[in-house]
Fold this sequence. Notes:
Elements: H1 5-33, H2 47-80, H3 83-93, H4 98-131, H5 139-170, H6 175-198, E1 205-207, H7 212-223, E2 231-234, E3 245-248, E4 254-258, H8 259-264, H9 267-282, H10 285-307, H11 311-316, H12 324-334, H13 336-339, H14 343-365, H15 368-381, H16 390-396, H17 402-427
Parallel strand pairs: 2-4
Antiparallel strand pairs: 1-2, 3-4
Helix pairs in contact: 1-2, 1-16, 4-5, 4-12, 5-6, 6-10, 7-9, 9-14, 9-15, 14-17, 15-17
Amino acid sequence: MTPPVVPLFLAFFTVQFAVETALLVLNLRHAARSRGVPAPLSGRVSEETAERSRAYTLASGRFGLLEGTFSAAVTLAVLFSGLLPALDRALGARGLSGANLFVAYLAALALGSAVLSLPFSLWHTFVLEARFGFNRTTPRLWALDRVKALALQAAIGVPLLYAIHAFMRSTGALWWLWLFGFLTIVQVLLLWAYPVLIAPLFNRFQPLPEGALRARLEALARDAGFRNRGLFVMDASRRSGHSNAYFAGIFRPRIVLFDTLVASMSVDEAASVLAHEIGHYRAHHVHRRLALSLAGTLLVLYALSRVVPWAPLYAAFGFDGPSLHAAVALLSLCAGPFVFWLAPLAARLSRRHEYQADRYAVRLARAPAAFASALVRLNGENLSNLHPHPWYSAWHYSHPALVERLAAIEAEAARGASAAAGAALLRSP
């Protein structure tokens, strides 16, 4: 009896599309009905900012709805139009086989995906982001970024695909374990190389100038015992008006601040944002997420090892027989609907980490009011949704909603003040 591969896939695909679309529509309706400033943010957020945030949420959500529907339609078309086996036969007819066929097939699919995404990227950058004053990218810079990204993906991806094929062909039945070890090394090397070799291809990074902000941030890092490779300002304003800060690297990371953040925040606000990022590092969130990512990679490779010899999968999508490149392509296109339910679990873990980093920031920077105002400022500058639907945020949000986050910060500050008062009473004669 032939396994019902196609009906099973379509059932899971339909569930995924229905759930994610329903959540997005629910969030859009919630935003459309929720006007004004939430009561806990009264006096902190202006009515004008709240209305612009609502408009940006609606515009972004509608764009996401269109993009998601298009992506789903393309996935079904690619899987059921006969394109995948036709591409296999066309490349084979040109004399390609073995590793060359493996690389050419997967590279062609990746290139096709990139081309299909270009209209959405253009619209998002030059229409949606421009409408709300975020876009500062010129068409020339946008095109140059895409050319650089494509060249970088080819320079890294093509040799990587050849290496993957070699592991799959040459290391026996446990090739997936050998390949996992290799990919782990590659991922760690890329994390190391990103701030030094890759990021400077797209942005300029200058040391944070001497002054009150640099002195405060360096003192903060010393107090936390946080070893780093320096404080840098990134020219994010060349492309966008959004603000942020991040660490780059895995062992002794660089501290990177967007120039938009440096320009808009006070010293205490910026220090609190940095303290939050240090909190992530001190709690080993970066390393835990890396470990989870690697665990996911291991499971995917194991699943791939089981799929490679499974003839019914290839027959279901029109292939003449099993092949390594077809297995990788089919797993990439078909796996999502079977694991999409993991998204809210990952989001919940991420929000838990954010709360932990917030508590650390309150204790380290000792400026909870400045931290709260920094988050309000970031939320306003990025026009983040002030009224997310709780189901949507539970499924998708990697960070707690602003109101929830501010309440947690205030609670942590109150606990700290109470503990300090108690300690003072104990010290008093």
